[in-house]
Amino acid sequence: MMTFSEIKYERVDMETLKAQLSALTERLANAGDFAEAEAAFLAANELEGRTVRTMRTVAQIRRDIDTRDEFYDAEMKFYNRELPKVQPVKQRWTDELLRSPFRRALEEKYGEVALLNAELQNRTFKPELVEDLQKENELVSRYTKLIASAQIPFEGEMRTISQMEPWKLSTDDDVRRAAWKAEGKWYRERGKELDAIYDELVALRDGMGRKLGHNGYTPLGYDRMKRNCYTEKDVEQFRVAVQTYVVPLCKRIYMEQAKRMGFEFPLSYADKDLAFRGGNPKPVGDPDQILAAGTKFYSELSPETREFWDAMMAGEMMDVCSKPGKAMGGYCTGVHSAGLPFIFANFNGTAHDVKVITHEAGHAFAFYVNRDRVPFESMIPSLEGCEVHSMAMEFFAEPWSELFFGSDADKFRYTHLAERLCFIPYGTMVDHFQHIIYEYPEFGPAERHMVWQELLGLYMPWLRPDDIPFYGEGMAWQRQAHIYKMPFYYIDYCLAQTVALQFWAKLRRDRDGAWKTYMDYTRLGGSMVFTDLLAEAGLRSPFDPECLKEIAAEAKAFLDNFDLTEIE
């Protein structure tokens, strides 16, 4: 098997790509029967999936591993500049596909989702948007490189943002608060640059929406996110359920935490994330030991996961250690030509490291299971559907908590559920913030910071503004990369978390049945829209208000009865 380092990178020749796609468009237009139309359809799928996406993905991964690499930085600038120029040719292909007399036959054989999403994609582009798309790519890259460049002086060393995380969770109150202030100071000093980038992004996106006939960006944002089965109204209904059922439960969790820790309530930013005086659960061992624990977990979970993990390790399809120049955050992406996913992460010595092994590998497993599905657009669902794979996998790993966390296993089980519940209000707030900002694109930095502060009071009443730079000034939204890079993505995590919590509840009653449901859901890939995938697998829609109501009630009972007396 070829490893990731052995994958040969070749820049995609854009003129050749446009010529090939144009020729395939003509083949489809002139197809005399289904066989000819299908051949053109499959050739276009191969061209896009295995050629263009593979090379761009390889360049992105290698750039993100070291943002100082001039070669791959230049390659990403090339794709950011040139790929938008291919959009008019892609649009002609999509137009021809959608009006083809063989469309229905293609849908019957390969599913309707790919063509439904093609319709949405078609609505996101006009030739006059090419320069705007190039500019958007450029601004997102500026944000990525700015965050990746962070060198924060703390405790006698220069540290990246990821490397600050253990200090921000220190059990020493003075050290922890100093770490939060040091990181906040770094962000605060770059606040004007972060605001300027976002000013341009909002204006640019608003303009693109108007060029496409909308009153602003939001409808375009929904089309870009392939929202093919729910609307803004559905999201608004979900927000109400979050505020009604989840926020009160989370406020109770944090009140108990403040009492346990001897902290003032509402909590400081610097105190919110420390759940126990003895410290938050920490993984056992170094990165190699954590990866070894992951090997044991996936080997024992099921034959399917054993095969998947072995392939990942053999292909060296991970880069997980934090280092200077590496892009912040983590993700899973597919390297289509290899038929394997790649996991990118920044280990930092916290429970986050185990989450990489469970969460990101949950994405990777779904890609692996569906790697041969055609067309590639139907390999995986839309993003909220994808996040179910990862967030549910975290709960399937809990019986192996002793392996990952040793004596902190019970502490992890408690904090994991509490954190997953309390993430939902935060994630919903991020989405609500973006809806307001794109509704009022004329807002400047001061108004945006004020909106964030007001939403904090609605969704996170357990937090108080304090003297921590940046965080206490309504600027913390700038730390959430998705707001810059992928507007309206974040609600996907919340919807998926609601589904994943259904798996948590199922696992308490019937582990084998829960795994069967998981595999039933995963094997569907992206063959259906999100709500249909859930229905087909026997799962409830998060848009049903009773769904969150029931989850919150069961979670409250579990947490109330969790024995914390022996946990320090």
Q: What proportion of the residues is helical, as a percent range? A: 55-70%
Q: Kindly, what is the distance between the CA atoms of the first and last residues, rounded to a whole number of angstroms?
A: 46 Å
CATH fold name of the domain at 227-284 and 382-388 and 408-568: Neurolysin, domain 3
In terms of DSSP E residues, the strand content is under 5%
Order of helices and strands: HHHHHHEEHHHHHHHHEEEHHHHHHHHHH
Q: Strand order within the widest sheet?
A: 3-5-4
Tally of DSSP β-strands: 5
Structural class: mainly alpha
CATH level 1 class label of the domain at 227-284 and 382-388 and 408-568: Mainly Alpha
Sheet bearing the most strands, described?
Answer: 3 strands, mixed
In short:
With 568 residues, the protein is mainly α. The protein has helices spanning 14-29, 34-65, 70-99, 103-110, 113-122, 130-148, 161-168, 173-189, 191-211, 218-224, 232-261, 269-272, 287-301, 303-314, 352-369, 383-396, 401-405, 409-439, 445-459, 481-485, 491-509, 511-523, 530-537, 545-560, and strands spanning 152-154, 157-159, 318-321, 331-335, 340-347.
